[in-house]
């Protein structure tokens, strides 16, 4: 068992072996030879090389199927990946095994506005502590998602509206240097979409949208099973779709963006106005207790039957649903998954989003279109970040 | 030279040879062996088989490069494809060679509302006449585009709003039976996008949108060089994006769709109202001359400096641009091509579309985004239809 990793897949056959074994569990050499259309000798040689690279192990004899006994190929059980998700005000770090099952995780508040040096130092600190607690000397790779547009090839954020100081900062290379392992950087919404695809409700979907409603609003786009990032890497930036030219000012400088109506910050603003304007005794009480209201406060008011909280939720759901209805007409996805902090408002929000989509899009596009909440409870970002880097380690460079 | 075709590519190597030779012209066996990473013996054998299939010919000796002379492989010069584009009120049919250069074309008025039997009989008649005039016994395949959603796998239109009687009609199989050759059916906008990719302004773009503004409005989506059709085959149906819930009734039954504001029919309606309401002497004159106004009449009024025609064009361009701005934020394309009959309004329309997109989308997504008019002068649909079927004939079944 290798507790630090020397390599990554070197041939397409090695890459396919790793991906099959990651997604389906240990497989016999006979089985792999059949799936890959190559000889058992080739599988034995390639699997042997994967053992040397610290990526696979000999998994013992396979259950007999009558003929010659075959040997199982499995992922090295010491293989570890790290997934990091940075949000506007919180960070989550997880250590996973080679199949991207979360072995340990840590969540903590951060302020992304403090800039890359301060925030990445915290992320490194948490990562090192988790790795030490798990007895991992070096992970096979680290994936990280950040709440803004990313130049994926360059590994840097690009003009991120809510991340002052991060524009062009070499996040990928800085982390890779510090941790001595491959790192990949992507947008938070993209890695969340990957997490849903790997282990969430989108497991069997090849064309789907993951919509994050958090402090900001964004969308991960999966086409034919692969993330679609767009010509400049900023595809899915739906929070800045303009829904009313006379609407409130947005963090991006424009007026009337979707996010300015119903991001987490907008919802907190509207809830506070409702509390202070005497329109919701429940929200007023929560404001007095907590000193400030958040999207989560609106969720608590909802569970206490507050009419104003319900009205805010419905209005927001209608706006999100109207934007999504247009995207359904354009993109005709097979599934829409809703996640992010504000999605914690749950089924009142979901019902409104659904009815807007179903009402405004053509029947052909919505006839088989499930619109569902994420079921990963906040892990989609870290699992997806781990998936991002594992795909690279398991692929041919 | 084979004037009727027996086959299609049988191996991935044959498929690659055909595609290279289609897109780059005759290539020597040495050159092909190098590109494909196979031996010259293999290329010779596969090329020989393509000759037997009537797809390729021995193109004579290649220019010497010092070593042994090599033989050129070329497409069979007798290879012919047919591309058909059905619109709401017009049909275009073209016969192309194996490289999809148009050898002969025919345009004629049709009424798609007359239903599949009547319209397909006309299409078959025109096709047979063109083939006879070109001395073609049997084309290698036929591609056809229709103005409505299509089930590509099934080869049938699905609930097409402006094609009464066509829902579920087996267009592909009926034509294939009549012509005795492979046929593929797709949406008109999809085949136009393929035409732009094959020989138009989108030749070097891998992620782009083709927006058709004709009687209806639709959008072809190319992702990674391939058409994206969506989960139900109706991706790109942007004419039915709702832009104002209180807007005019649309052919689809909803209110305020983009198409109800600025499809060709809507523009004719608004132009007629302007003529009858005394707001445009030029349009009134054209109405009197022609008995009815069309999008083309508005174009003629534009060239005569009519202020009302300019106002209608600008207002339409603003509406289309607003919808496209949202799609740019979502999809981050590398290029947008505008085509279709109404695009004949030209640069007054284009300028308005561009300025709406640039004003309402984030700078990152528009910094390198060309928005251009199609330059194929109406041939994009027939070339794209031919491309659709040629891709299938040149590919392994």
UniProtKB/TrEMBL annotation, chains A, B:
PROSITE patterns per UniProt: ROK
Pfam assignment, any one: HTH_24
Domain of life: Bacteria
SUPFAM superfamilies: Actin-like ATPase domain, Winged helix' DNA-binding domain
Cross-referenced PANTHER family: GLUCOKINASE, ROK (REPRESSOR, ORF, KINASE) FAMILY
Family recorded in the similarity comment: Belongs to the ROK (NagC/XylR) family.
Name of the protein in its database record: ROK family transcriptional regulator
Naturally occurring in which organism (per UniProt): Nocardioides islandensis
Lineage: Bacteria, Bacillati, Actinomycetota, Actinomycetes, Propionibacteriales
């Amino acid at each position: 068992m290798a507790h630090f990793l020397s390599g990554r897949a070197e041939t397409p056959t090695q890459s396919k072996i790793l991906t099959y074994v990651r997604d389906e569990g240990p497989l016999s050499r006979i089985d792999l030879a059949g799936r890959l259309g190559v000889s058992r000798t080739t599988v034995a040689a390639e699997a042997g090389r994967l053992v040397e690279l610290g990526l696979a192990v000999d998994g013992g004899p396979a259950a007999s199927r009558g003929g010659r006994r075959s040997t199982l190929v499995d992922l090295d059980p010491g293989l570890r990946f790290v997934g990091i998700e940075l949000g506007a005000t919180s960070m989550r770090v997880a250590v996973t095994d080679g199949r991207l099952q979360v072995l340990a995780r840590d969540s903590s508040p951060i302020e992304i506005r403090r800039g890359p040096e301060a925030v990445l130092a915290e992320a490194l600190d948490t990562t090192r502590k988790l790795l030490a607690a798990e007895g991992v000397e070096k992970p096979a790779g680290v994936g990280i998602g950040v709440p803004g547009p990313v130049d994926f090839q360059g590994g840097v954020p690009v003009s991120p509206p809510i991340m002052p100081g991060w524009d062009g900062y070499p996040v990928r290379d800085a982390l890779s240097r510090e941790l001595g392992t491959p790192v990949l950087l992507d947008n938070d919404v993209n890695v969340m979409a990957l997490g849903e695809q790997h282990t969430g409700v989108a497991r069997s979907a090849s064309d789907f949208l993951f919509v994050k409603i958090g402090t900001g609003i964004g969308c991960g786009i999966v086409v034919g099973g692969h993330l679609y990032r767009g010509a400049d890497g900023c595809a899915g930036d739906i929070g800045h779709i303009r829904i009313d030219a006379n609407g409130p000012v947005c963090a991006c400088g424009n007026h009337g963006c979707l996010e300015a109506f119903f991001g987490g910050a907008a919802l907190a603003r509207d809830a506070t106005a409702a509390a202070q304007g005497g329109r919701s005794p429940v929200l007023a009480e929560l404001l007095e207790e907590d000193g400030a209201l958040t999207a989560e406060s609106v969720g608590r008011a909802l569970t206490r039957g507050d009419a104003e909280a319900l009205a805010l939720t419905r209005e927001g759901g209608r706006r999100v649903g109207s934007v999504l209805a247009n995207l359904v007409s354009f993109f005709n996805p097979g599934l829409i998954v809703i996640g992010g902090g504000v999605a914690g408002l749950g089924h009142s929000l979901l019902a409104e989003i659904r009815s807007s989509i179903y009402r405004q899009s053509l029947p052909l596009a919505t006839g088989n279109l499930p619109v569902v909440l994420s079921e990963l409870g906040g892990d989609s970002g870290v699992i997806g970040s781990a998936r991002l880097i594992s795909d690279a380690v398991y692929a041919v460079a």
